[in-house]
Fold:
Amino acid sequence: MKIYESSVKKPITTAIIFVAVVILGLFSLNKLSIDMLPEIEMNQAIVLVTYPGASAEDVENNVTKALETVLSTVSDLKKITSTSKENVAVITVEFNWGTNIDDAANDMRDKIELVKQVLPDGASNPMILKLSTDMMPVVIYSATADESSQALYKILDEGVANPLNRINGVGAVSISGAPQREISVNIDPQKLDAYNLTIEQIGSAIARDNVNTPGGSIDIGSETYSLRIEGEMKESDLLNNIVVSNFGGKSVFLKDVAIVRDSVQEKAQESYINGKKGATLVIQKQTGANSVDIVNKIRKELPKITKNLPKDIQFHEVMNTTDNIKNSIASLVETVLLAFLFVAIVVFFFLGQWRATIIIMLTIPISLIASFIYLLLTGNTINVISLSALSIAIGMVVDDAIVVLENISTHVEKGARPREAAIYGTNEVGVAVIASTLTIFAVFLPFTMMGGMAGIMFSQLGWMVCIVMAVSLICALTLIPMLSSIMINKDRKSSKLFEKLYSPIRKLLDKFDNIYSSSLSWVVRHKTFTIIAGVLVFAGSILLASRIGSEFIPASDNSQISGNFELPIGANVERTKVIASQFEKVVKEKYPEIITFTYTVGTPSEDDDNSWAQMQTSGSNYVSFRLKLCDIDDRERDIFEISEGLRKELSSYPELYRYNILPGGGGGMTSGSTVDVEILGYDFEETEKIAKEIKDKMSKIKGLRDITISREDYKPQYQIEFDREKLALNGLNVATASTFIRNRMNGMTASLFREDGDEYKIKVRYDRANRQSIEDIENISIYNTSGKAIRLNEVAKIEEKFSPPSIERQDRERIIKVKSTLYGETLDKATANMQAEIDKMDIPSHIGVQIGGTIVDQQESFSDMGTLALLIIMLVYVVMAAQFESLRYPFIIMFAIPFALTGVLVALFLTGETLNMMSAMGSIMLIGIVVKNGIVLVDYINLNRERGMSIVSAVVSGGKSRLRPVLMTTATTVLGMLPMAIGIGEGSELWQPMGIVIVGGLTFSTLITLIFIPTLYCVFASREVKRYRNKNKLKLNRRAV
Amino acid sequence: MKAAFIAYNQAFVEEVEDVLRQLSIRGFTRWQDIQGRGSKTGEPHLGTHAWPSKNMATLCVVDDYIAPILKKMIQALDHSAPNQGLRVFFWDVVDV
Structure:
């Protein structure tokens, strides 16, 4: 018994199976979590080696080069970049997308093992760090306080960070911008010298006076007691009375030589939130945890936490990755629902029957819901990709059902009983339905095998569409016949009202049929004219191609902008702060869309445990800021326009050295394109000169913004150079002398002060007043082993010097990059202009100049997609050839593809969209979608000829009878895509080009298919007939002889 | 006794069964998935791409007085869908 036969004969079993599938699907939906994209494994690992005391060039020659050589043999390697700075080498190894980073890291470890012996003795063990998306914060809060600002760190650490850390899935919670408590012992150097003391002695005195010691045990009678000496200080005040030495028979107390202050750390990063000083809480997630779940939990927990805190502490959300996720998902859900509605209207419009419409529309929820089971089983999430797949598939899933139902209806009309009609009707079209679904598989299955970045985005899409289509095929072959056998009957009377409403539509459709058949019969009699017209239309559209720009991935608006600016190197924090606050005031006035404006100034202190802050660039001259804007619907300017305004604003400050604005907050792939020029060459000065020249040229090219040279400027610094002879004469060595300087300027941690289970550092150093000039450094006394004090200026010279810049390398060659971001110009044009400028330059042959940035990714993806398109064209041809058992008819049908391209170009041109990864993907999908119309048409024309019609009448009557099915399936697909093409809500910018391309391409190609393919069919078929006749004639002649 | 050979589109199997049941004809022989075409009009039932529908045939032996009634009922069924070409043929049964 065939599958449709048994499903019709066992309606209850069939119904129950589908109900079970739907219940399972809904259960899975309930379990699935939400995310932006399918899980992406980062493809980078970093090798870090410290080599203290080595200059950038030494590091490059001795460490970086050796490591690069071995690392370049690691498999799946894409690119090696490195930075050699003073003391440290950082080598970034980038792998091809989809490489298992754990295996790759192991491979790297083995390779590094080989080269370890060659590394210089002073170099540390190479450390391998894997980059992951988990390092990106999920949410950043800011906390402001009035009275409690001094204790903010402790309050946040204990009252907020700890409870938040207990939430399942929350990784690290780090606090920055809030200074930590520190007990500082500020020493007056004159008094120190007067008492013949050193900071080291004071430090050890403090340490000696702040210890708990176990004293063993004592037996008293029959009991054993342990002895314990509680020597730790209970209060920081007690430090004052520590005896540090004896001078002239009298005890010298710490208060005699120093001021003890129980306060906060001297240097820390400062954060300002909407002009108010405060702290930021950066929350990272654990590996594999779901961001949206975490943020939901945090939001639920935070009001409870705030209740227990002092009343003046307030929290603001500075950055939140999940709002964007939620909004994008919500707008896609809306898109899917709208598509469902549109498809329902189309089906009803063409069929004019409620029951048939309901039967067909049932396929949509069943096939879509069933795909959630797949998502749950494979551990995926509901994300932008999986939902877009649903929105792409929604118009196609009804096609099979329509074909089956239409045939069953025909049988019922002819007089068969619905039950038998359902079985035999399905039997007749079963093969055709399977074949047309196979063409969709031919398009989407290759998607699942794609590599690279596109592979991550589209393999899930491919699976989803294939699964949805497979379920819809099963539906069409089982559920649809079963339901039709029950619900469809011949003599059904429709109400008068319905007749009144629907009869105009029916008349309209009939009119369409007639117009089409008469124009078709004209066209097949003027074949040459039609073919020439078609070729001209196609050629004309190709001319449009040059007027369409290209980019990589369309940028989308996520209501966030981040950026940074720098004052010239050496500017202190105070000066930087003034400019930052000035900038904030102006910007907030000009852009009322801004909800929060946070900025951070200064360097995080070195013993900060804030890993997020340590990873970021910082400096006393460096300000990083972050804006959160109101919802996209509540404002007219998008983030790119506002960013452009910010750039203009920043350029009006003459004191700034450089600035950079990142619309979208820098994270993610959709924040716009970059154009980089890479200059490869060994000689510093030469490459620097070229870089500057290129920078000048870039600033004149339209659309390039934020142009910066990657090599840092020479930093001014004071260098202390010891005279080794004098050192030796005084019995000193460099290490001792440098420790002396460091302890006095930077401070030494003498001991830890414990209170309520927390530890605070006791830092001993010179008073701030004695750490402000070169003389202060020169006057530092260094004591040798015989206890003799020697001033620093006796053994060393202090000179102002510039530290050499770090050396960047890429694929084992020195490189400088001139970077820029793009605004208001398409990637291809900006790149072409840049290339033209470079070609004009006179560049020595040993220096390489090439364009990098987004264009490289674009070219890579586009060439992948070109291969994919070819593969899909071949697969589609194979499927069709098998179905028609002919090589000629598939070839005729393939002519729909160039006209789809015409439609794509026209649609892109009219909407002003660019050719990007999304629109290219849409065009590839079109290959499979547009041939479906041709299959339906040619199949029926063939049928007519087999039934004995002449070529022309077979074509005309076939065309007329297939017009409605073709228009109907096209309309469902086009209208199913329409919500996507219009673009609803946040994140829709990404998918809009794909929607536009499919709507445009399919509409245009269908219109052409209906005219052009019948004409071509006539040409090919009549040639075939003539050849056949000639062959037979020949035989007759032979016989005659 | 007469032998009745009923040739019909397989979609009509239930209707034909109904007729047999109404006339209390218990015994029959039936062929499935067979092909056929009418002499003058009607759709061929060939199971091909052009004519995908197929025929069925039922042979039953009925009493002489039943034959005209059967003929009438089958013809009525034929009139409900003339294009499907439902036919019944009779001939005499010599011996059982």
Q: What stands out?
A: Chain A is about 55% helix and 20% strand. Chain A has a mean pLDDT of 85. Residues 988-1040 of chain A form the longest helix (53 residues).
